[in-house]
């Protein structure tokens, strides 16, 4: 939030109130247009698919306006509190954020209490997990999630034979991503909780279509950088009631504010579901690469490695739980599948090593309601990197990469992986990035060439 001089606070409050009024008027118009599209009679409407697209466009615009209005209302509160208490804007912002967190927690507790008392969806009242019942209340959502659930398996390891893993959850979730009917094999994408295992340690898979069978899987590869692992199981015989299509459909990278479902399979093979929103926040967690997103739901203990699904029934990500941070994290499924593609072709996963950690400007724009700022803000630079030698420091803005505007961080990770894929098709050991950088302190822009070496971010466990 811009740190205005105190004498400008009253004027800025008036300007903010005007912006809120204008945005509310735009929101009201979109609400009216969406209502008209919903209530229109048969003679007034176009094709059903077009009607649905129209309603979705208005709904998306309404959500965007609501986010901007909420930010402006927060800004107004901060300015008013700063004037009232004669404090600086940053202190006022911290106080307002603390108050908003307390109010949100109180509302969440009240909603959960009301849900427990009043909500008993027909047919699901006997589910042993009440949060699954409350997460799926729309029949169409339930139908689409059950379609994805065909590919959701339970993954576990033998703690007795894996003493290094005793501090981790014994049960996790996986997604069937490849199906070989001829050779009776399936490949499963899951989280990397096997970093300290060696080839030969036992990892088990159970699937609801063969619930009496415990498959001892083969660990094919892991990537500690992306926290993913791929397993393979072999069937002695195929189940007779197997669905015609097991592999789910995969979607695009989810966006901030998007509604999603997280699926998990517990040790009894019961399906567990959580429902929430992609948060407009960015946290630095040492174990993670930069392309992760954060969600506002709490995963069940067995949820890591499970699919994240949108309202169209597409798998858009994979879930992770970081209990020490109290955070549910999502790796875009496109990133995971690029790792799988690279390993399948070359038995390794590699990407350029930039030596730079960024702040997500798309996220900054989303929170501020201002989409005029383009670039990647440098958060940290590895002192041993070429970037450091070239003078890139925390706070530097990368204005362009190879004459193109930088991508948001999840898309940037996919771009770097695609560079790795091209590298493995060739023989060059480095890649050059033409960067335009902006030093905000000195207000100087300059062009540099960053020579980035490739780094392997996977470990292969197959016997070649």
TrEMBL record:
<dbReference type="InterPro" id="IPR036034">
    <property type="entry name" value="PDZ_sf"/>
</dbReference>
<dbReference type="InterPro" id="IPR009003">
    <property type="entry name" value="Peptidase_S1_PA"/>
</dbReference>
<feature type="region of interest" description="Disordered">
    <location>
        <begin position="38"/>
        <end position="58"/>
    </location>
</feature>
<protein>
    <recommendedName>
        <fullName>PDZ domain-containing protein</fullName>
    </recommendedName>
</protein>
<feature type="region of interest" description="Disordered">
    <location>
        <begin position="103"/>
        <end position="130"/>
    </location>
</feature>
<dbReference type="Pfam" id="PF13365">
    <property type="entry name" value="Trypsin_2"/>
</dbReference>
């Amino acid at each position: 939030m811009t740190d205005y001089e105190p004498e400008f606070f009253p004027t800025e409050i008036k300007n903010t109130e005007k912006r809120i009024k204008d945005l509310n008027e735009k929101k009201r118009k979109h609400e009216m247009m969406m209502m008209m599209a919903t209530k229109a009679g048969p003679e007034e409407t176009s094709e059903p698919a077009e009607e649905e697209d129209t309603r979705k466009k208005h709904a998306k615009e309404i959500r965007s306006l609501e986010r901007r209005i909420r930010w402006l209302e927060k800004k107004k509160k901060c300015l008013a509190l700063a004037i009232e208490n004669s404090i600086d804007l940053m202190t006022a912002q911290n106080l307002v954020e603390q108050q908003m967190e307390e109010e949100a927690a109180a509302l969440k507790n009240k909603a959960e209490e009301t849900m427990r008392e009043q909500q008993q969806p027909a047919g699901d009242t006997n589910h042993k997990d009440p949060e699954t019942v409350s997460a799926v209340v729309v029949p169409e959502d339930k139908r689409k999630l059950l379609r994805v659930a065909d590919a959701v398996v339970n993954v576990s390891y033998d703690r007795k034979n894996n003493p290094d893993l005793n501090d981790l959850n014994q049960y996790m979730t996986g997604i069937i991503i490849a199906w070989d009917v001829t050779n009776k094999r399936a490949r499963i994408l899951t989280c990397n909780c096997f970093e300290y295992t060696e080839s030969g340690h036992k990892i088990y898979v159970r699937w609801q279509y063969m619930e009496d069978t415990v498959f001892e899987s083969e660990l094919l590869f892991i990537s500690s950088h992306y926290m993913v692992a791929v397993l393979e199981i072999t069937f002695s015989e195929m189940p007779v009631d197997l669905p015609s299509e097991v592999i789910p459909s995969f979607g695009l990278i989810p966006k901030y504010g998007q509604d999603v479902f997280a699926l998990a399979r517990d040790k009894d093979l019961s399906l567990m579901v959580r429902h929430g929103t992609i948060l407009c926040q960015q946290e630095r967690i040492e174990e993670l690469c930069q392309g992760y997103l954060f969600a506002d739901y709490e995963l069940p203990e067995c949820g890591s490695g499970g699919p994240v699904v949108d309202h169209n029934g597409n798998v858009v990500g994979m879930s992770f739980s970081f209990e020490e941070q109290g955070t549910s994290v999502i790796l875009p499924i496109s990133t995971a599948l690029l790792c799988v593609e690279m390993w399948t072709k070359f038995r390794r996963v590699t990407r350029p090593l930039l030596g730079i950690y960024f702040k997500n400007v798309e996220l900054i724009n989303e929170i501020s309601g201002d989409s005029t700022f383009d670039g990647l803000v440098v958060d940290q630079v590895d002192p041993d990197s070429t970037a450091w030698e070239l003078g890139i420091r925390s706070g530097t803005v990368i204005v362009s990469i190879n004459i193109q505007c930088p991508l948001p961080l999840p898309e940037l990770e996919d771009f770097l992986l695609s560079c790795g894929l091209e590298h493995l098709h060739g023989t060059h050991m480095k890649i050059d990035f033409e960067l335009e950088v902006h030093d905000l302190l000195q207000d100087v822009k300059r062009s540099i060439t960053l020579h980035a070496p490739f780094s392997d971010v996977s470990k292969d466990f197959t016997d070649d």
